[in-house]
Amino acid sequence: MRVGVPKEIKNSEFRVGLVPGSVREYVANGHDVLVEKGAGAGIKVSDGDYEAAGAKIAPDARTVFETSDMIVKVKEPQASEWVQLREGQILYTYLHLAPDPDQSRGLIESGVTAVAYETVTDIYGGLPLLAPMSEVAGRLSIQAGAYALTAHQGGRGLLMGGVPGVLPAKVLVIGGGVVGTHAARMAVGLGADVTILDRSQHRLAELDELFEGRAKTRYSTFEALDEETDSADVVVGAVLIPGASAPKLVTREMLKGMKEGAVLVDVAIDQGGCFETSKATTHEDPTYVVEGVLHYCVANMPGAVPLTSSHALNNATLQYGLMLANKGLDALRHNEHLRNGLNVHRGKVTYKAVSEALNVDFTPALEALK
Asked: Do residues 140 and 312 lie in contact, with contact meaning Cβ atoms separated by under 8 Å?
Protein backbone atom coordinates (compact mmCIF):
# COMPACT_ATOMS: atom_id res chain seq x y z
CA MET A 1 0.00 0.00 0.00
CA ARG A 2 1.16 3.56 -0.63
CA VAL A 3 0.82 5.67 2.51
CA GLY A 4 0.71 9.43 2.02
CA VAL A 5 1.60 12.15 4.52
CA PRO A 6 0.53 15.66 3.47
CA LYS A 7 1.73 18.79 5.22
CA GLU A 8 -0.83 20.08 7.72
CA ILE A 9 -2.48 23.30 6.55
CA LYS A 10 -4.78 24.21 9.45
CA ASN A 11 -3.92 27.54 11.06
CA SER A 12 -0.79 27.28 13.23
CA GLU A 13 -0.70 23.49 12.95
CA PHE A 14 2.90 22.26 12.95
CA ARG A 15 2.46 18.58 13.82
CA VAL A 16 2.96 15.85 11.24
CA GLY A 17 1.10 12.56 10.69
CA LEU A 18 4.20 10.36 10.59
CA VAL A 19 7.60 11.02 12.14
CA PRO A 20 10.65 9.38 10.50
CA GLY A 21 10.69 6.55 13.03
CA SER A 22 7.12 5.62 12.07
CA VAL A 23 8.01 5.82 8.38
CA ARG A 24 10.69 3.18 8.96
CA GLU A 25 8.06 0.89 10.48
CA TYR A 26 5.74 1.23 7.48
CA VAL A 27 8.61 0.64 5.06
CA ALA A 28 9.72 -2.42 7.05
CA ASN A 29 6.19 -3.76 6.61
CA GLY A 30 6.53 -3.49 2.83
CA HIS A 31 4.70 -0.22 2.21
CA ASP A 32 5.70 2.82 0.18
CA VAL A 33 5.55 6.11 2.09
CA LEU A 34 5.13 9.40 0.28
CA VAL A 35 5.72 12.56 2.33
CA GLU A 36 4.92 16.03 1.05
CA LYS A 37 7.90 18.35 0.76
CA GLY A 38 8.38 20.28 4.00
CA ALA A 39 5.79 18.27 5.96
CA GLY A 40 8.18 17.83 8.88
CA ALA A 41 9.45 21.40 9.05
CA GLY A 42 7.29 22.19 12.07
CA ILE A 43 9.11 19.55 14.14
CA LYS A 44 12.52 20.43 12.68
CA VAL A 45 12.66 17.27 10.53
CA SER A 46 14.04 17.69 7.00
CA ASP A 47 13.03 15.98 3.78
CA GLY A 48 16.43 14.29 3.92
CA ASP A 49 15.53 12.78 7.30
CA TYR A 50 12.41 11.28 5.76
CA GLU A 51 14.35 9.96 2.77
CA ALA A 52 16.86 8.36 5.13
CA ALA A 53 13.94 6.59 6.81
CA GLY A 54 12.82 5.19 3.45
CA ALA A 55 10.19 7.69 2.33
CA LYS A 56 9.86 9.36 -1.05
CA ILE A 57 9.27 13.12 -1.15
CA ALA A 58 6.30 14.50 -3.10
CA PRO A 59 6.49 18.02 -4.55
CA ASP A 60 3.01 18.99 -3.36
CA ALA A 61 -0.12 17.84 -1.53
CA ARG A 62 -1.95 17.10 -4.78
CA THR A 63 0.55 14.38 -5.62
CA VAL A 64 0.13 12.85 -2.16
CA PHE A 65 -3.66 12.76 -2.37
CA GLU A 66 -3.78 11.57 -5.98
CA THR A 67 -1.34 8.69 -5.65
CA SER A 68 -1.80 7.36 -2.09
CA ASP A 69 -4.03 4.49 -0.96
CA MET A 70 -4.05 5.72 2.62
CA ILE A 71 -3.67 9.26 3.96
CA VAL A 72 -2.23 9.74 7.45
CA LYS A 73 -2.78 13.19 8.96
CA VAL A 74 -3.11 14.90 12.32
CA LYS A 75 -6.02 17.32 11.99
CA GLU A 76 -9.29 17.03 10.14
CA PRO A 77 -9.04 17.65 6.39
CA GLN A 78 -9.70 21.22 5.33
CA ALA A 79 -12.00 22.07 2.41
CA SER A 80 -9.15 22.05 -0.11
CA GLU A 81 -8.17 18.58 1.11
CA TRP A 82 -11.47 16.72 1.40
CA VAL A 83 -12.27 17.48 -2.26
CA GLN A 84 -9.15 15.47 -3.18
CA LEU A 85 -10.23 12.35 -1.29
CA ARG A 86 -11.86 9.48 -3.16
CA GLU A 87 -13.67 6.19 -2.79
CA GLY A 88 -11.32 3.30 -2.08
CA GLN A 89 -8.94 5.54 -0.16
CA ILE A 90 -8.45 5.37 3.62
CA LEU A 91 -8.18 8.56 5.68
CA TYR A 92 -6.63 8.10 9.12
CA THR A 93 -6.63 11.22 11.31
CA TYR A 94 -8.56 13.22 13.91
CA LEU A 95 -11.97 14.15 12.50
CA HIS A 96 -14.29 15.55 15.22
CA LEU A 97 -17.25 15.39 12.85
CA ALA A 98 -20.15 16.01 15.24
CA PRO A 99 -19.81 19.83 15.35
CA ASP A 100 -18.58 20.10 11.73
CA PRO A 101 -21.34 19.49 9.16
CA ASP A 102 -19.34 20.94 6.27
CA GLN A 103 -16.44 18.54 6.71
CA SER A 104 -18.86 15.67 7.31
CA ARG A 105 -20.67 16.44 4.06
CA GLY A 106 -17.36 16.62 2.22
CA LEU A 107 -16.23 13.22 3.50
CA ILE A 108 -19.60 11.64 2.74
CA GLU A 109 -19.57 12.97 -0.82
CA SER A 110 -15.97 11.86 -1.40
CA GLY A 111 -16.73 8.19 -0.70
CA VAL A 112 -13.56 7.90 1.40
CA THR A 113 -13.16 5.46 4.29
CA ALA A 114 -12.56 7.84 7.22
CA VAL A 115 -11.12 6.44 10.46
CA ALA A 116 -11.10 8.91 13.36
CA TYR A 117 -8.36 8.73 15.96
CA GLU A 118 -10.72 10.05 18.62
CA THR A 119 -13.17 7.12 18.52
CA VAL A 120 -10.77 4.15 18.27
CA THR A 121 -11.06 2.16 21.50
CA ASP A 122 -8.99 -0.37 23.44
CA ILE A 123 -9.61 -3.40 25.65
CA TYR A 124 -9.67 -1.17 28.73
CA GLY A 125 -12.59 0.89 27.46
CA GLY A 126 -10.35 3.88 26.79
CA LEU A 127 -9.63 6.05 23.74
CA PRO A 128 -5.92 5.31 23.20
CA LEU A 129 -5.39 7.58 20.19
CA LEU A 130 -7.09 10.53 21.85
CA ALA A 131 -5.32 10.08 25.18
CA PRO A 132 -1.84 11.43 24.27
CA MET A 133 -3.22 14.66 22.84
CA SER A 134 -5.59 14.94 25.80
CA GLU A 135 -2.58 14.69 28.08
CA VAL A 136 -0.79 17.45 26.17
CA ALA A 137 -3.90 19.66 25.97
CA GLY A 138 -4.65 19.18 29.66
CA ARG A 139 -1.20 20.33 30.64
CA LEU A 140 -1.21 23.19 28.15
CA SER A 141 -4.58 24.39 29.43
CA ILE A 142 -2.95 25.46 32.68
CA GLN A 143 -0.07 27.19 30.90
CA ALA A 144 -2.63 29.01 28.74
CA GLY A 145 -4.78 29.89 31.75
CA ALA A 146 -1.81 31.15 33.74
CA TYR A 147 -0.67 33.37 30.87
CA ALA A 148 -4.20 34.70 30.24
CA LEU A 149 -4.48 35.62 33.93
CA THR A 150 -1.70 38.19 33.55
CA ALA A 151 -2.78 41.83 33.40
CA HIS A 152 -1.33 42.56 29.95
CA GLN A 153 -3.50 39.75 28.54
CA GLY A 154 -6.60 41.24 30.12
CA GLY A 155 -6.70 38.81 33.05
CA ARG A 156 -7.05 39.45 36.76
CA GLY A 157 -3.34 40.03 37.23
CA LEU A 158 -2.82 36.90 39.33
CA LEU A 159 0.19 34.64 39.65
CA MET A 160 -1.13 31.09 39.45
CA GLY A 161 0.71 29.85 42.53
CA GLY A 162 0.70 33.07 44.51
CA VAL A 163 3.61 33.88 46.83
CA PRO A 164 4.04 33.60 50.61
CA GLY A 165 1.34 35.74 52.19
CA VAL A 166 -0.73 36.03 48.98
CA LEU A 167 -3.34 33.44 48.02
CA PRO A 168 -2.87 31.42 44.81
CA ALA A 169 -5.35 31.39 41.92
CA LYS A 170 -8.40 29.16 42.23
CA VAL A 171 -8.59 26.66 39.36
CA LEU A 172 -11.77 24.74 38.58
CA VAL A 173 -11.43 21.67 36.35
CA ILE A 174 -14.72 20.38 34.93
CA GLY A 175 -14.26 16.70 34.10
CA GLY A 176 -11.95 14.19 35.72
CA GLY A 177 -10.86 12.24 32.65
CA VAL A 178 -7.48 12.35 30.93
CA VAL A 179 -7.59 16.08 30.14
CA GLY A 180 -8.88 17.02 33.57
CA THR A 181 -6.39 14.86 35.43
CA HIS A 182 -3.41 16.32 33.59
CA ALA A 183 -4.75 19.86 33.96
CA ALA A 184 -5.15 19.33 37.69
CA ARG A 185 -1.67 17.81 37.92
CA MET A 186 -0.13 20.89 36.29
CA ALA A 187 -2.19 23.33 38.36
CA VAL A 188 -1.31 21.55 41.60
CA GLY A 189 2.35 21.58 40.57
CA LEU A 190 2.19 25.36 40.16
CA GLY A 191 0.70 25.73 43.62
CA ALA A 192 -2.85 26.67 42.60
CA ASP A 193 -5.97 25.98 44.69
CA VAL A 194 -7.56 23.23 42.56
CA THR A 195 -11.07 21.74 42.52
CA ILE A 196 -12.17 18.96 40.16
CA LEU A 197 -15.83 18.35 39.27
CA ASP A 198 -17.04 15.03 37.89
CA ARG A 199 -20.25 12.96 37.88
CA SER A 200 -18.64 9.59 38.55
CA GLN A 201 -18.31 8.75 42.21
CA HIS A 202 -15.78 6.06 41.30
CA ARG A 203 -13.63 8.54 39.39
CA LEU A 204 -13.85 11.12 42.17
CA ALA A 205 -12.59 8.50 44.63
CA GLU A 206 -9.68 7.69 42.30
CA LEU A 207 -8.79 11.37 41.95
CA ASP A 208 -9.03 11.93 45.67
CA GLU A 209 -6.57 9.10 46.23
CA LEU A 210 -4.31 10.24 43.38
CA PHE A 211 -3.93 13.81 44.60
CA GLU A 212 -3.89 12.99 48.32
CA GLY A 213 -5.63 16.21 49.30
CA ARG A 214 -3.61 18.50 47.02
CA ALA A 215 -6.71 18.91 44.84
CA LYS A 216 -10.30 18.94 46.09
CA THR A 217 -12.99 16.85 44.41
CA ARG A 218 -16.70 17.61 44.20
CA TYR A 219 -19.67 15.88 42.61
CA SER A 220 -20.87 17.93 39.65
CA THR A 221 -24.37 19.40 39.95
CA PHE A 222 -25.87 22.66 38.67
CA GLU A 223 -25.46 24.09 42.17
CA ALA A 224 -21.81 22.99 42.34
CA LEU A 225 -21.09 24.50 38.92
CA ASP A 226 -22.67 27.81 39.94
CA GLU A 227 -20.75 28.02 43.20
CA GLU A 228 -17.41 26.91 41.83
CA THR A 229 -17.45 29.07 38.70
CA ASP A 230 -18.33 32.14 40.79
CA SER A 231 -15.21 31.70 42.92
CA ALA A 232 -12.81 30.47 40.22
CA ASP A 233 -10.04 32.45 38.58
CA VAL A 234 -9.48 29.82 35.86
CA VAL A 235 -12.05 27.30 34.64
CA VAL A 236 -10.86 24.39 32.45
CA GLY A 237 -13.56 22.65 30.41
CA ALA A 238 -12.46 19.02 30.09
CA VAL A 239 -15.61 17.06 29.32
CA LEU A 240 -15.96 14.45 26.59
CA ILE A 241 -18.70 12.33 25.08
CA PRO A 242 -16.84 10.15 22.54
CA GLY A 243 -17.63 11.24 18.99
CA ALA A 244 -20.49 13.52 20.06
CA SER A 245 -20.86 17.25 20.59
CA ALA A 246 -19.74 18.39 24.04
CA PRO A 247 -22.51 19.38 26.48
CA LYS A 248 -22.81 23.11 27.21
CA LEU A 249 -22.15 23.14 30.96
CA VAL A 250 -21.30 26.78 31.63
CA THR A 251 -23.98 29.16 30.36
CA ARG A 252 -23.70 32.80 29.39
CA GLU A 253 -25.82 33.68 32.42
CA MET A 254 -23.27 31.98 34.71
CA LEU A 255 -20.53 34.25 33.36
CA LYS A 256 -22.26 37.23 34.94
CA GLY A 257 -21.49 35.80 38.38
CA MET A 258 -17.81 35.22 37.62
CA LYS A 259 -14.94 37.53 38.53
CA GLU A 260 -13.96 40.13 35.96
CA GLY A 261 -10.79 38.99 34.22
CA ALA A 262 -11.34 35.32 35.08
CA VAL A 263 -10.35 32.85 32.37
CA LEU A 264 -12.22 30.01 30.66
CA VAL A 265 -10.09 27.42 28.82
CA ASP A 266 -12.26 25.18 26.65
CA VAL A 267 -10.32 22.02 25.84
CA ALA A 268 -13.53 20.48 24.43
CA ILE A 269 -13.69 23.03 21.61
CA ASP A 270 -12.84 20.38 18.97
CA GLN A 271 -16.19 18.80 19.83
CA GLY A 272 -18.05 22.11 19.81
CA GLY A 273 -17.02 23.35 23.25
CA CYS A 274 -18.50 22.88 26.72
CA PHE A 275 -19.18 26.56 27.41
CA GLU A 276 -22.22 28.18 25.80
CA THR A 277 -20.14 31.19 24.73
CA SER A 278 -17.26 29.19 23.21
CA LYS A 279 -16.15 29.67 19.63
CA ALA A 280 -13.00 28.23 18.10
CA THR A 281 -9.91 30.45 18.13
CA THR A 282 -6.35 30.08 16.85
CA HIS A 283 -2.88 30.27 18.34
CA GLU A 284 -2.42 33.59 16.54
CA ASP A 285 -5.54 35.11 18.15
CA PRO A 286 -6.33 32.80 21.07
CA THR A 287 -8.66 34.79 23.34
CA TYR A 288 -11.76 36.96 23.36
CA VAL A 289 -13.94 38.43 26.11
CA VAL A 290 -17.60 37.78 26.93
CA GLU A 291 -19.22 39.34 30.01
CA GLY A 292 -15.79 40.38 31.28
CA VAL A 293 -14.46 36.79 31.18
CA LEU A 294 -11.55 35.79 28.91
CA HIS A 295 -12.18 32.76 26.70
CA TYR A 296 -9.27 30.65 25.42
CA CYS A 297 -10.71 28.25 22.82
CA VAL A 298 -7.83 27.21 20.56
CA ALA A 299 -8.98 24.19 18.57
CA ASN A 300 -5.56 22.59 18.14
CA MET A 301 -3.82 23.30 21.43
CA PRO A 302 -1.20 20.52 21.09
CA GLY A 303 -0.07 22.18 17.85
CA ALA A 304 1.78 24.69 20.02
CA VAL A 305 4.24 21.97 21.04
CA PRO A 306 4.44 19.98 17.79
CA LEU A 307 7.64 18.09 18.54
CA THR A 308 6.30 16.60 21.76
CA SER A 309 2.82 16.15 20.29
CA SER A 310 3.87 14.47 17.04
CA HIS A 311 5.97 11.85 18.78
CA ALA A 312 3.34 11.21 21.46
CA LEU A 313 0.66 10.85 18.80
CA ASN A 314 2.76 8.52 16.64
CA ASN A 315 3.46 6.30 19.63
CA ALA A 316 -0.29 5.73 19.92
CA THR A 317 -1.40 5.65 16.28
CA LEU A 318 1.35 3.52 14.76
CA GLN A 319 0.07 0.04 15.63
CA TYR A 320 -3.45 0.78 14.34
CA GLY A 321 -2.10 2.49 11.24
CA LEU A 322 -0.01 -0.56 10.41
CA MET A 323 -3.11 -2.73 10.80
CA LEU A 324 -4.90 -0.61 8.20
CA ALA A 325 -1.94 -0.57 5.84
CA ASN A 326 -1.29 -4.31 6.18
CA LYS A 327 -4.88 -5.54 5.94
CA GLY A 328 -6.93 -2.72 4.44
CA LEU A 329 -10.65 -2.92 5.13
CA ASP A 330 -10.21 -6.39 6.63
CA ALA A 331 -8.50 -4.71 9.56
CA LEU A 332 -11.76 -2.87 10.24
CA ARG A 333 -13.87 -5.97 9.77
CA HIS A 334 -11.85 -8.11 12.16
CA ASN A 335 -10.79 -5.65 14.87
CA GLU A 336 -13.65 -4.20 16.90
CA HIS A 337 -11.58 -1.47 18.51
CA LEU A 338 -10.22 -0.18 15.22
CA ARG A 339 -13.70 -0.49 13.68
CA ASN A 340 -15.02 1.84 16.39
CA GLY A 341 -12.86 4.48 14.73
CA LEU A 342 -14.73 4.19 11.44
CA ASN A 343 -16.91 7.30 11.10
CA VAL A 344 -17.64 7.42 7.36
CA HIS A 345 -17.42 4.74 4.69
CA ARG A 346 -18.46 5.06 1.04
CA GLY A 347 -20.97 7.79 1.71
CA LYS A 348 -22.43 6.29 4.88
CA VAL A 349 -22.04 7.60 8.44
CA THR A 350 -21.01 4.65 10.58
CA TYR A 351 -20.64 6.23 14.03
CA LYS A 352 -23.92 6.67 15.87
CA ALA A 353 -23.06 9.77 17.91
CA VAL A 354 -21.98 11.54 14.72
CA SER A 355 -25.16 10.61 12.87
CA GLU A 356 -27.27 11.86 15.78
CA ALA A 357 -25.37 15.15 16.03
CA LEU A 358 -25.67 15.74 12.27
CA ASN A 359 -29.19 14.34 11.97
CA VAL A 360 -28.24 11.96 9.16
CA ASP A 361 -28.88 8.25 8.64
CA PHE A 362 -26.73 5.82 10.61
CA THR A 363 -25.34 2.61 9.10
CA PRO A 364 -23.61 0.15 11.46
CA ALA A 365 -19.95 -0.18 10.54
CA LEU A 366 -20.04 -3.91 9.87
CA GLU A 367 -23.03 -3.51 7.62
CA ALA A 368 -21.33 -0.72 5.67
CA LEU A 369 -18.18 -2.84 5.30
CA LYS A 370 -19.96 -5.84 3.75
From this structure: no
- The CATH class for the domain spanning 133-304 reads alpha beta
Radius of gyration of the chain (CA): 21
In one-letter notation, the amino acid at residue 138 is: G
Reported as a single tens digit per residue, the pLDDT across 126-146 is 999 999 999 999 999 999 999
Domain extent listing, the chain: 2-120+306-369, 133-304
pLDDT tens-digit map of 168-225? 999 999 999 999 999 999 999 999 999 999 999 999 999 999 999 999 999 999 999 9
Which residue of the set 96, 182, 295, 345 is catalytic?
Answer: 96
CATH class, domain 2-120+306-369, is alpha beta
Measured on CA atoms in the order 344, 242, 127, 273, is the torsion positive or negative? positive
Which of the residues 31, 270, 295, 345 is marked catalytic? 270
Whole-angstrom distance, CA of residue 148 vs CA of residue 93: 30
Whether 270 is catalytic is yes
Q: Is 286 left (phi over 0), alpha (psi -120 to 50) or beta?
A: alpha
